[in-house]
Fold each of these.
Amino acid sequence: MMLTTGFKGKIALVTGAASGIGLAVVQKFLAQGAEVVAVDLLGTGLKEKFANHDNIICLEQDITTEDAAYVIIDCAHRGFGGLDILVNNAGICVGQTFEETSDETWDRIMAVNVTAMFKITRRAVPLMKERGAGRIINIGSIMSEMAGPGLCAYGTSKHAVAGLTKSMAVDLGCYNITANYIQPGAIITGLSEEFFKDPEFRAYWTKKAPIGRLGEASDVANAIIFLASEAGEFISGAGLNVDGGAIINF
């Protein structure tokens, strides 16, 4: 298959890159000519997947450590000389109700899903300003607009992603930096597959999407590529639903 060069000369950084949505995004960026920094807690697996690629750096890193933002962004700076696109994809989910949610669960989910996103992006902005533009794409959820049983901390974190992204868009637009967030619906990934083993849960979300199927990682990756491309240059502060219409189907 012939590779396109829609991102030739662009440097992209993707967190949570070893599987699911993150992996699909990395593959699409590489296929379109970008240089990519792929970050994941399971960095060894990433290096094995991309052993034959020259234009990718695979970094094994826990994004919640105190120095993670510096390590990650400095890797992009040293390795490729800058940064144009940041995809904050890494996230975790624990299924617990409000009363069940412990302090430890709450703190861990907020650390991964919100605080790390804030710190990594803050560190990335100077590199984007040097390049004269930038694209920030954060992974929220349809839970950024709604709530579901047993998803207290996760849902709260995704509402925070929406608010954080809008603040980024307002404060960074003057530097030609856009910030948007994706709201995936029922997408089959390593994070969600345990939930979809429940036949009733799977059937509910399949029926809820008017399109009539569960989503794939590639569906979300396509939306991210669009927002990162020239076609998305005047879109900022927006939440893009990638859910087959589920959120509007009452």
Amino acid sequence: MKHPILLHIHTYPTEKICKLKAKQKMIALTETLIQIQDKLFAQQKYKVLIILQGMDTAGKDSAVKHVFYGVNPAGCNVKSFKAPTHEELAHHFLWRISNHCPSKGMIQIFNRSQYEDVLIPVMNETLTKNQLEERCNEINNFEAGLINNDTILIKFFLHISQNEQLKRLAERKTNITKKWKYQEADVKDIANHEAFLESYQFVINNSFKKSNWHVVPADKKWYKNYFILDKIVKTLQEYKIEYPS
């Protein structure tokens, strides 16, 4: 299968849809997702795992807020993966991930994921190419196991341009509602935009073929949210999620 070359994929919408139309569609899509979630919880067969990956300022947090605002909190969990703790580092790198995978009838959202344990070593050059490929194979086997046990796995890479990153970083320095997000380390990371893009390309090239990535144009926040919600609903509609007889 041919993988997308991220350098050649637009970070802004190419679909002919305006902001107002996207918001109107999101209302209908949210209602559909609510109905699917109700059946999912009642049926107790499938588990849904949604992975959100992206560079700093790409909008992972806002996607969680706007895409899933209508779902029942009793059937949905969110886990944000930060730098590993001392306890987590003492275990296999997938240990902290497996603890948070969804149970039957649940939707689990990962804000960052197991892929951080490939992306960061790629950036910091702490593992050899063979070691990185072996780690990707472990992730692929892990995901295969999830899928074989009725987990619906949906993965998103929020694709943002460096110019938009800089714009959002500047906003974090001046907007009182966003200042708490500002970190000096983000300046360095954004400066390494192209290197991070190459790291994500490595991850995509070595990912499990049965759980392909959706590359989300993320320069426009409203379109990013619409795109993600639309893909989730369409994916879930492919499965026989229904009320038990």
